[in-house]
Design brief:
Elements (H helix, E strand, L loop, with lengths): L21 E6 L4 E7 L5 H9 L6 E4 L3 H16 L6 E4 L1 H7 L4
Parallel strand pairs: 3-4
Antiparallel strand pairs: 1-2
Helix pairs in contact: 1-2
Amino acid sequence: MRRPGPRSSKSPPMGFLGRRPALMVVEPESLCWMAGRIVEARDGVTWAQEFARLPKLKAVARDDGTGLGKGVRLENARRRVAGLPEFDDTLDVFHTLREGGVP
């Protein structure tokens, strides 16, 4: 279910936290919730800071959000400069199918 637009009178879907941006990180195999917090923005800098808190992170499966993608690029660039291993980045299947109109 998509979030209603800014002029909509409909309530946002359950679990979105209204208009407050949030970062949520879930380990996909166990579905363990690694991080979840309300933030000022879901921009690239904020996501890069979140990824920096996970130094052993090896891979990210994500949606194609612009802030999230930029955060991946920023954190991998920081790791490259520091001589640390970068993490893999791939789009998840759920969001790809949903955006493609496949139920």
